[in-house]
Amino acid sequence: MTRGPLKAWLFDGVGSNTDEHVGPYADERHDEHREPWWKVMCLTGVDYFSTLGYQPGIAALAAGALAPVATVVLVLLTLFGALPVYRRVAVESPHGQGSIAMLEKLLPFWRGKLFVLALLGFALTDFMITITLSAADAAAHLVENPNVPSFVNGHAIVITLALVGLLGVVFLRGFGEAIGVAVVLVVIYLALNLVVVAVAFWHVGMHPHVIGDWVDLLKVQHSSPLAMIGVSLLLFPKLALGMSGFETGVAVMSHVEGDPEDTEEKPTGRIRNTRKLLATAAVIMSLYLIASSLVCTWLIPPRQFQDGGKASGRALAYLAHQYLGNGFGTVYDVSTIAILWFAGASAMAGMLNLIPRYLPRYGMAPEWSAAVRPLVMVLTAIAFAITIIFKADVNAQGGAYATGVLVLMTSAAVAVSLSARRAGQRKLTVVFALIAAVFVYTTVDNIRERPDGLRIGTLFIVAIVVLSIASRVLRAFELRTTQVQLDPTAELFLRDCARRSIRIVANEPDARDREEYRRKTAQILDDNDLPDAQDILFMEVTLTDPSDFESVIEVSGAVLHDKFRVLTFSSPTVPNALAAVLLHIRDVTGVRPHIYFEWTEGSPIPNLVRFLLFGVGEVAPVTREVIRRAEPDPMRRPHVHAG
């Protein structure tokens, strides 16, 4: 089927498998556009590094004079907690599935799928709110800037929608363009922050008494250094957003360039470079966090951090204007607005990687979700809706953002703890378990303080589950096979029968003794008024996990009891697999095969429910329906008989 120009552009890179009669995601894994690790670091860094715009202010509000100490605690937990966890995640899920893939195998069948959908709900909460919150924050910086014309005031929602739409346009052009924009923004932003911090330290050097005043204040407020550390640990949940960005770092690792000898099964170079990406980003951010927290605490009056203060949500921008003038300060503001706008790029990239790797494989997404551009358009539309619902209010979205980030980091810590335990690494198991405990405490404390985040995350989960189940039902009658393979014996059986006729008997394997096949043969001959048992092949399907959607079918042939020729294979669903094999037999032999069924007893409605949930049920009509949808020409469809 030919595509028009618009459709070809939308579905660029996604092939049609109709002619081969395999499932729609047979060629889901296509070549990724890969870049050097430091460029991909900039893509994830637009989210991670942009927190410099507000993290020093958050620390000052939460901890007061203790902010630098609390920030050091945050940095230590980043470098010796989050970083080791995600470096291991990169090893365990090198194709960008993240910690969700590591936890996917904990629960079997539908329970496992629902568990993954719940984690995806929190992931999408994190990523979607990253887009809308960052754009809203950028709009707030723009509206509140003293150099902006007054007519802009009161139009934060419109500005936020425009920024979200512009982000979508960038991704419609492609990942290469997104990474190029990210590199420019990150380099400029980090350079400007370096200038601001350096000048601030120079002013501290000119007025060293501010350090003495700070130390004296700490001594008055806290009885000992241990007390300071204890309070800082208790304050950690309020500063934890300074750790955001790790999940997107592994989510986009499929775009990291590896070694020439890398394979999909063993991408050693890509894993090494991703771990380098994570470590470099963490070290850079840690240095900036500590330095910015120190100079902001020393040089900015505490009242300016409060709501309405000149440093509220923009502490480093305050220093830029204060010590480098309005000209440089305006340049810094523009850079901050730009990186906050593009902070959603890492989240968009993460979703474009995660969604096609899970939902289509579960049959819980429409076919177009395998293409980047339609998915970008849908995600952008959802971001528009969230922006309107929350009226581009940064504070209203903060709880959901924090909850999504912390749940994902907790799941990653739990996943690597279980991974270390399975590998027999006792010391690492204990270490990762302690890190997981810290994240569990942080998550619970955040939810207790801001329960709205959990409510919003739950809404995302419910929406994903409902839409996913609806999609699974709508796609129940599709071919789900990515490939059909015949072993030499099966090929021999088919070549022999193809010279006359190919008659296949669908048999539910039981004892598999001589009497079972003799009775089945007699029944089929009687029900269908066949003259003899010549050219009859038995076909038996062993049911695997019925919650899976797609599968590779490997057909094996065998002669049982020196008489009965049997084709066997495994699949998550019986009728869809039978349809795929019948179409494959027709294609390789040029003969339309006949298949014979025995009608299933009972009401068709419960049998349909059994098919949807467990892959079995009324097999005959469902097999025929799958064939009908896959092959539009009635004269080319395999013959389906039931008696």
Walk me through the structure.
By secondary structure, this protein is α/β, with parallel strands linked by helices. 64% of the residues lie in helices and 7% in strands. It has 23 helices and seven strands. Strands 1-4-5-3-2-6-7 form a seven-stranded mixed beta sheet, sandwiched between helices. Helix 6 crosses helix 15 (372-389) and helix 7 runs antiparallel to helix 15 (372-389). The protein is elongated. It starts with a helix and ends with a strand. 49% of the residues are buried. Residues 15-31 have low confidence and may be disordered.
Top keywords for this entry?
single chain; 643 residues; alpha/beta; 23 helices; 7 strands; 64% helix; elongated
Strand-helix topology:
Elements: H1 5-10, H2 37-48, H3 55-63, H4 67-92, H5 99-103, H6 109-144, H7 156-173, H8 175-206, H9 209-221, H10 225-239, H11 246-251, H12 268-299, H13 315-342, H14 344-358, H15 372-389, H16 394-422, H17 426-449, H18 451-474, E1 481-486, H19 488-498, E2 503-506, H20 514-528, E3 536-543, E4 551-560, E5 564-571, H21 574-589, E6 594-597, H22 604-614, H23 619-630, E7 639-642
Parallel strand pairs: 1-4, 2-3, 2-6, 3-5, 6-7
Antiparallel strand pairs: 4-5
Helix pairs in contact: 2-8, 2-12, 2-14, 3-4, 3-10, 3-12, 4-10, 4-12, 4-16, 6-7, 6-13, 6-14, 6-15, 6-16, 6-18, 7-8, 7-15, 8-12, 8-13, 16-17, 16-18, 17-18, 21-23
In short:
This protein is an alpha/beta fold. It contains 23 helices and 7 strands. The protein has a 7-stranded mixed sheet, sandwiched between helices.
